[in-house]
UniProtKB/TrEMBL annotation:
GO terms for molecular function: oxygen-dependent protoporphyrinogen oxidase activity. It comes from the Bacteria. Transmembrane segments: none annotated. Residues 13-420 form the Amine oxidase domain. This is Oxygen-dependent protoporphyrinogen oxidase. Keywords: Oxidoreductase. It is an enzyme of class 1 (oxidoreductase). Pfam families: Amino_oxidase (PF01593). It comes from Amycolatopsis roodepoortensis.
Length: 434
């Protein structure tokens, strides 16, 4: 006898999608989440009329097929996630608009003419977001990919993008998953943000599932025909368990799996300061990415009140300052006051008046913010995926596809649910067999 049919560990969008899809198939599912809220890296804080997206900042209307399918099923229309309608700027002495847009080929967006032409040539070809390992780029890093071309291609485009959005180091992160993602999502002005916060999707999925928040799982044990979830002195048995948590956490919870891919699948940490302002600042772009050569402490500045007007009360402003990956290790251990002082001080030149306008600051540290697609992990990915569904412990998360986006997490949850539906006999069949 088992206590439940399927247990899902982790109530981010990967785990919630898994539970939702299994529920549609008639399976009995319970989701266990250590935090007090659902959403994982897609959570939103609500403070004094501000909507503060704590990790994920936007989604795309292109390349997010499974996300939009599920949103339609949940009755969430496109008006719930309107277009941001603004672009991203590159800082090179000043904010230069048009990053990743066609107009950037004319204006430069921080790139020299030679670098623009090199970028167009270099990024031609087909890239697969589900199988990045089959790319013609093989295991080349971002830096390796850029090396034959004008140095601006790395210094004023690829490095700021990978460091500013994913916390990646271009010298150790693989190029193929990056280019697969960038070529699938379309230009930034078409990107979207959920009107009521980036946790909108997760909250809607959670309403359709049996979710236990504040439930910390310490270990998952594979006993052959069943699995056991251990939480303190409590044990729960299940026919199957899906670990929908970051790969390093999954490896700690179930070390018996022994997967080389799990061991190689590292995550990058992020430190950011959310600044609640007494007035709006910035414009016309909703974000500015900052090359290492231009700062070294700040990687990205997001003007959340420009991303969507509902992110801040009328007449106020909300700005998120993300630390450069080189500064993150030190800031992870720093006090909140020190983080705010360092980040606002370094951002003041980029956004004059930022310190004076800040009335309150919230610091967010995310130790497992984005899967880091290293060449070694890339080489091991397909073999790991081929083994999924063969045991009582399965996996879901954006890291399964080495793609740092919520669509990859959703897609992995859909796939995990299909595997389990096929593996576990349905109740009708069991009754007939009896």
């Amino acid at each position: 006898m088992t206590d439940i049919e399927v247990a899902v560990v982790g109530a981010g969008v990967a785990g919630l999608t898994t539970a939702y899809e299994l529920g549609k198939a008639g399976r009995e599912v319970r989701v266990f989440e250590a935090a007090g809220v659902v959403g994982g890296r897609m959570t939103t804080l609500r403070e004094d009329g501000f909507l503060i997206d704590t990790c994920a900042e936007q989604m795309a209307e292109r390349g997010y097929r499974e996300t939009w399918r599920l949103l339609a099923e949940l009755g969430i229309g496109g008006d719930a996630a309107p277009r941001i309608g603004r672009g991203i700027a590159m800082w090179r002495g000043r904010a230069r608009s048009g990053v990743a847009e066609t107009r950037g080929l004319l204006t430069g967006a921080g790139l020299s003419l030679r670098a623009r032409l090199a970028g167009v040539r270099a990024m031609r070809g087909e890239f697969d977001t589900e199988r990045p390992e089959i790319s013609r780029l093989g295991g080349r890093t971002v830096a390796d990919f850029a090396a034959p071309h004008h140095p601006d291609l790395l210094n004023y485009l690829l490095q700021p993008v990978v460091s500013g959005f994913f916390g990646w180091d271009p010298a150790r992160s693989a190029a193929a998953p990056l280019l697969a993602l960038l070529t699938s999502v379309g230009p930034p002005p078409t990107w979207r943000a959920y009107r009521d916060g980036m946790d909108t999707f997760a909250r809607a999925l959670a309403e359709k599932a049996d979710v236990s928040t504040g439930f910390r799982v310490d270990q998952v044990v594979d006993d052959g025909p069943v699995a056991r979830i251990i939480s303190g002195t409590r044990e729960i048995s299940a026919k199957a368990v899906v670990l929908a948590v970051p790969a390093p956490v999954a490896a700690e919870l179930h070390p018996g799996h022994g997967s080389a891919f799990l061991a190689a699948c590292s995550f990058t940490p992020v430190v950011k300061a959310h600044l609640l302002l007494d007035r709006p600042l910035g414009g016309p772009d909703y974000a500015v990415i900052v090359p290492t050569a231009e700062n070294g402490t700040v990687a990205t500045i997001i003007f959340d009140h420009l991303k969507h007007p509902g992110r801040a009360p009328a007449g106020r402003g909300l700005v998120t300052v993300m630390a450069h990956p080189h500064a993150v290790p030190e800031l992870l251990a720093a006090t909140d006051e020190d983080v705010v002082t360092r980040l606002t001080g370094a951002a003041e030149r980029l956004v004059p008046g930022l310190r004076a306008a800040t009335r309150r600051a919230l610091v967010r540290r995310v130790r497992h913010a984005a899967p880091e697609a290293t060449p070694r992990a890339l080489a091991l990915r397909s073999a790991f995926e081929a083994e999924l569904g063969r045991g009582v412990v399965d996996y879901a998360g954006d890291w399964v596809f080495l793609s740092p986006c919520s669509e990859a997490a959703v897609r992995s949850g859909v796939r995990a649910a299909r595997r389990l539906t096929e593996r576990i006999a349905c109740p009708v069949q069991e009754e007939r067999a009896g």
